[in-house]
Every structure is written in C-alpha cells, then in structure tokens.
Description:
195 residues; 5-stranded parallel β-sheet; 9 helices; 5 strands; disordered N terminus; binds adenosine monophosphate
Amino acid sequence: MADxxxxxxxxxxxxxxxxxxxxxxxxxxxxxxxxxxxxxxxMLRAAVAAGSELGARVEGIMESGALVDDxxxxxxxxxxxxxxxxxxxxxLDGYPRTARxxxxxxxxxxxxxxxLDLVISLRVPEQELVSRMASRGxxxxxxxxxxxxxxxxxxxxxxxxxxxxxxYSAAGVxxxxxxxxxxxxxAASLRELVA
Length: 195
Ligand code: AMP
C-alpha cells in the first residue's frame, strides 16, 4: 500500500456485514500497525453501559437492529477522530454505514488534509454469518445478536451499507478479502494487504 501522506497513516475503513469478523480483524490489524481500532458499535455499547445521555438515546435502536441516525454518528466519529491517537492513522470498524456517513467521513478527512488509504471489504456467505452471530449471542449475550434481530441487521447491511462497496471501489481504494476462513488466515491476508 502506497502511503505518501506526510501526516502518517494508514487510514483504513473495514466494511463487512455483522458477523463477518471485522471487529476481531480490525482490532488485531490495528494493534500490529500501532494505530487505534475505532469501533462505533463498541463506543455506543460503552455509552449504553455507562448510562450516558447518548447511551439512553441509542439503546433501543441498537436492540432492534436498526441504525443510529447519521447526525448522532457524525458527532460520535468527529469527536473520536479529533483525539490525538487518531491523528497518525486509524482503522474504522463499523463506520461509515450509510452514504451520508461516507460523506461525513470524507468531509472530516478533507478538513484535515487527510485521505483514506484503504477500504477493506470482508466477504462471508450469509448462512455462515447467521450461524456465527447466533453462537456469539449465546456466548456473549449481546442483545442485538438474538435470532430475531440478526436477519434485520443483515437486511440493513445489504440495503444501506453494502452500496458503499461500489462507492469505494469506484474511488480505487477498495480491496476485498475472503472472510470465510480461520481467524489467522484472514489476519495473514490483511497483513499482506497493508504491507
Ligand atoms: P456493530 O457492533 O458495529 O455491529 O454495531 C452495533 C449497533 O450499533 C448497530 O447495529 C447499530 O445499531 C449501531 N451502530 C454502530 N455503528 C453505527 C453506525 N456507523 N451508524 C449507525 N448505527 C451504528
């Protein structure tokens, strides 16, 4: 990956349906690269756990499998990317998820004279996603991994987030990775991709 950005990098976005393993892989790759993995889902779950005003606002939405509104997410992400540790690169996991969020991210990056280096699309067949999420729900007890919500989250991904693949492909920054493999194999592919 070429990185001519004098302000560091890389700046990476992970795209992938729920259950694709993007959280696991984003965290791992970020650690290897020495940059923060920024998971908007984790940030929102932390807000819920802390009982903050934001948490109270998003809790029901998250439990239903729907998306939190773009303006709220813009605030969350703008604030997070302003932190010092994100100035020299980051991996965004779970943002952007809509065309408007992609515009917002573009605006934030443009304002700082930065750019996205890479968008990674993790591909996993739907049947595998459903069974992974179902077992995660049993193990971790995530409210939005209940069976009745899983299909809704996949539907939202297909309808609203998947079109971003096309956008980033057209921008020349997209790389697709087969996520239907063991964690270490996928991690090795990702490591090669950013090398
Ligand atoms: P995740 O852990 O990334 O699957 O996110 C869990 C839930 O948090 C999602 O189903 C949404 O309700 C909410 N969420 C996380 N990131 C976003 C985002 N970028 N836009 C809207 N909602 C989000």
